[in-house]
Amino acid sequence: MIAADTSTWIAFLEGESGEDVQLLDKALEDQQVLMAPAVLTELLSDPKLPSTVAETLLEIPLMELKIGYWERAGALRAKVLAKRRKARLGDALIAQSCIDSGVPLLTRDSDFGAFAEAASFDLVIGPGTD
Hints:
By secondary structure, the protein is of the alpha/beta class.
């Protein structure tokens, strides 16, 4: 199982290339993708998102928020911020979902590196969009 960050989903939906997009495509084919709730929220926030794409995204199994999720996400973000690294709230929520579910994250956002260092979870970083 894997999860993909919004940056990888956007690249995938726009037909871009990259290792992350290829891995997402294969994982979708094999039904091995979990959706982080914060990623789904970000994707569905696009007012130009076609309804057919939204319906397809809603079919992907959603990661469950486990008891203590919000506290762990806050502590993770604080740990990254204490190292004077960039730690957007949405990224902290996505990272914590992956940590709790034990799945690697496909992303094009290098900011996730700070979360991976702080909590030792697996990242696959594709071509940068930052």
